[in-house]
Amino acid sequence: MKISLNFTGLFCLFLFFAQKIQASSGYASSFGYDSSDATAALSAAFNSNLDTLIVDFQPSGWTTGPQFFQNINGLVVIFQPGVLVKAKPGAFGITDCLFAFRACKNFQIWGYDATFQMNKPEYTTAEWRHCLALLGCTNFKIYGLTLRDSGGDGVMIGNGSHPGTPTFSKNIALRDLWCDNNKRQGISVISVENLVIEHCKITNTNGTAPQAGIDFECDLPTERLVNCAVRDCYIAENAGCGIQNSFKYMNSGSLPVSITVERCHLADNLAEGFKITCDTSGVGGFYKVKNCLVENHGKAGFRFRKDAADVFIQVENSIFRNNANASGLSSFPIFFEVVDYFNDCPAIGGADFKNVLVEDDKDRDFLFGFAWPTSPGVQNITGNFTVVNSFGASFTVEPVVSNVNFSVAALANYPATTLNLTIFDAIAAENPTNLGSYRVKRTSSNRSFPLTVKYSVGGTATNRADFYFLNGLTIIPANATTTNFKLTARHDSLAEPT
User: Fold this and answer.
1) pTM, full prediction
2) Phi first, then psi: what are they for 42, rounded to 5°?
3) Positive or negative, the Cα torsion across 147, 152, 156, 161?
4) Secondary structure of the chain: what % helix, strand, coil (to 5)?
5) Sequential pLDDT tens for the chain (498 residues)
6) How far apart are CA 258 and CA 302, in angstroms?
7) Residue 491 carries which DSSP code?
8) For residue 302, how many C-alpha atoms fall within 13 Å in the half-sphere facing its CB?
C-alpha cells in the first residue's frame, strides 16, 4: 500500500502482519448470536474464562442492551474489522452504558475499523448513556474503535462508584479512537492516574453541556488528575471547548494536577480552544500545552479563570490563529479573568507563555486580563509572543500586583518562508518494526516564532487503521529550522495490498 503527503509525492508503506492469539480464545458468536438481540451472547462471552475473545463480523451487526462487567482480569477483546455494535432501541435507562467496566484489570480492547453506535436522538434526557465507561479500572487499553452517537460520552474514565472499589482509574491508554457526535463529551476524565490519550480524533460533540472534545473534571476533592497526557490528537467542530478543564471541585488537599497536551490540533470548536477553571479551589500542580495549533474558535483560543497560586499554566511553542470570532466576554485570542465578580478573591494569574505565536485579523488586544475590583490584580504572568496582525500588537493586563513581564514582537505579515522535506526512511514496516521518518526544514530570515506545517495523508493505506493516526500537523519550534515526524505502521492480522 502507499501513503502520500501533499508536498512529497508517494511513499511506500509495506506492512507485515504478525499479531498472535495466545492461550484460550474463542468467538463471541459461539455463545449464541442473535441478530435481533445479542445482549446475552456478548455478556456470556465477556464473562467466559477465555483469555482472548474475538467479536466476529456479522452482516447484521451486534444489537445489544446495556453491558456491565466487574472484576474481570486479563482479557483481550478483538472486535474484527467491520464489526458494528449497535445499542438496542428503548433498552437504555439514563445511567446505562453500551459497555461499562468496574474494577477490571489488565484488559485490552482492539477495535480498528469497528464501530460502537448508540441512538442519540432517542436520549432526550440526562447525559450518562456512554459508549464506554471505565470505573476504577487498572491497566486498561483501548485501541482503534469508532465511538459515536451516545447519550453521554464516547469514553468516560472515573472512579469505581461503589463501596470497596478504587476511587480512580489507573494506567489507562486510549489510542487511535474516533469519538464522533456524542452528546456530552468526546472523552470525560473524572479521576485517573497515568492516562495517555494519543492519536485520537474527537469531533462533533453536541447536545448537552459542556459539549467538549475532552473534559478533565473531578467531581470530588478526593479524586485525581495525575500524570495525564494528550498527544497527537485532532479535536474539532465540537459545540463546546476543544479541551475543557474544570478543577473547581478540588482543593488544597487534592493531589496536584499534572496534565500535558502536546502536538495537538484544536480547530473550529464553537467555544474556547482551551478553558481552565479553578475558581478558588487551591489545587496545585501544572497544566502544560506544547507544540499545539489552536485555530478558528468561536471564543478565546486560551481562557483561564484561576488564582495565581493555583495550577500553574505553561504554554510553549504553540500557535493561536483566528480565534475569538464570536462576540462576548472572552472575545480575545487569549483571555483570563477573576474567579469571582461579586465577592473579594485573590490575585489572578500564574502562567508562562514561551514562544507563542498569535495570528489575528481584528483590531483588538491579542491578550486581555482584567482583575475586576473584587481582586487586588494580576501577578505571575510572563511570556514572549509574536503577533501577526496588520493592526499591530496590543494587550491589556491590569492592575499589576507583581511579576508581569511580556516581550512582544509585532509582524504585519509572515516573512517569506520556504519549506523542504527530507525523507530519511520511506518504508514503515510492522515486522521487523521500522518507522517511516521525515524532516521538514524552513528557510527564512526570521525564525523567532513557531511555524505550523500542515500536510494531508493519502494513498491506499488508511489513516488510523493501517498506521497510527496522523493529525496532519507538525510544528517547527521557535528559533529552530527543522522538525521531525514519524509514521508508525500498526500491527494487526490483516493482509493489505502493497
Assistant:
1) 0.93
2) -65, -40
3) negative
4) 5, 45, 50
5) 344 444 333 233 333 333 444 469 999 999 999 999 999 999 999 999 999 999 999 999 999 999 999 999 999 999 999 999 999 999 999 999 999 999 999 999 999 999 999 999 999 999 999 999 999 999 999 999 999 999 999 999 999 888 888 899 999 999 999 999 999 999 999 999 999 999 999 999 999 999 999 999 999 999 999 999 999 999 999 999 999 999 999 999 999 999 999 999 999 999 999 999 998 779 999 999 999 999 999 999 999 999 999 999 999 999 999 999 987 777 999 999 999 999 999 999 999 999 999 999 999 999 999 888 999 999 999 999 999 999 999 999 999 999 999 999 999 999 999 999 998 887 777 767 778 888 999 999 999 999 999 988 777 888 888 888 889 999 999 999 999 988 888 876 554 444
6) 18
7) P
8) 26
CA distance 355 to 448: 8
State how far the alpha carbon of 498 is from the alpha carbons of 7, 14, 469, in Å: 22, 6, 19
* CA separation for the pair 425, 422 (Å, rounded): 9
Cα distances from 63 to residues 28, 67, 91, 99, 188, in angstroms, run: 13, 11, 11, 12, 25
Residues β-bridged to residue 236: 203, 267
Distance set, CA 211 to CA 120, 183, 237, 339, 396 (Å):
14, 7, 10, 22, 30
Enumerate helices (H) and strands (E) in the chain, giving the number of each: 1, 44
Q: What are phi and psi of 43, to 5 degrees?
A: -60, -45
Q: Please answer whether residues 372 and 342 qualify as being in contact, where contact means their C-beta atoms are separated by less than 8 angstroms.
A: no
Round to whole Å and give the CA distance between 115 and 109: 12
- Buried residues in 352-373 as b, exposed as e (16+ CB within 10 A): bbebbbbbbeeeebbbbbbbee
How many Å from the N-terminal Cα to the C-terminal Cα in the chain?
A: 4
Return the number of other C-beta atoms located less than 10 Å from residue 328's C-beta.
10
What is the dihedral angle through the alpha carbons of 37, 42, 44, 45, rounded to the nearest 10 degrees?
150
Determine contact, residues 34/44, Cβ cutoff 8 Å: no
The DSSP element (H or E) to which 274 belongs, if any, is strand 274-279
Contact of 328 with 291, CB cutoff 8 Å: no
Instruction: Confirm if 315 and 287 have CB atoms less than 8 A apart.
Output: no
Find all residues with CB under 8 Å of 254, minimum gap 6, and list them: 218, 221, 222, 223, 224, 281, 283
Cα–Cα distance for residue pair 408/229, rounded to 1 Å: 30
33: phi then psi, degrees, rounded to nearest 5: -60, 135
Q: Strands 457-458, 2-5: parallel, antiparallel or unpaired by DSSP? A: antiparallel
